[in-house]
């Protein structure tokens, strides 16, 4: 029996959208309603609300609260002891690369990880940065843009290769259209869940007026295999834009997370551009886990997503650089290793039948 979402006007588990009411789109700051409906705008969430606290910002609980100006806290000249421990040695970099290169999930060729986040959060840049680590030089594997609307329009799968000319590793990073802030710039909740369930083929171009369904989506998979499904979801948020994310984005994310969890998919989060919010981290990325600004931003991201801060890891993507950097590599590889740990939980939770052989 299909489970109806109600709010979004779609029945999950079926391919045909409900005729009425018109679908509400999953957007960054609000829920878009059909013409003639009402729209309620929410206050901006301030990073100041979480400085020194792990509680959900008051703006998420009190919609009458006025917007607060954002300002970074002053750091003491001497940075504090790390609040997370990460080894920055060449040995650690080598170990992480070896673990990722040799990773092979059970009963399928690769773990598929879907990156989800607002427009411009750094999803495509993360994919290119990870591949750059293994290439030994900065390359733009996934095309990126700097527009206010999503540069990525279609579902794309990127098989990470540790060595040129060899078979890809057991990791596929899936890039898709960014979650938008208007009725015409983001995918529907129905489409996102269809991707996770494996119904949507690679190359599908998303349209807010044409939801994924059996009769109209070319290549629609009615009964997707384990290999075609998503095995982990990584939410991607921009540390620079944390102050501009609207309060209702939290309820949207948490609603989405609830549906994803019902499918048995574990979720983590990446916080990008941490070097742009902390001068000390920009100067030396090894300061990332000593920075109170980054720690506060991670707590804020966790509150926004409704998850523990232990699921959130900071990331510095390659952007203007031409050459890779040892410490940036370690931070990126640590994020990939973090993701794979939760992808493994999916395979543990969905044990293969006895006759399934490990590839």
From TrEMBL:
One of the GO BP terms on file: immune response
CDD domains membership: Ras_like_GTPase
Disordered: region residues: 24-60
Segments of skewed composition (Basic and acidic residues): 29-43
Gene3D superfamilies: P-loop containing nucleotide triphosphate hydrolases
Name of the protein: G domain-containing protein
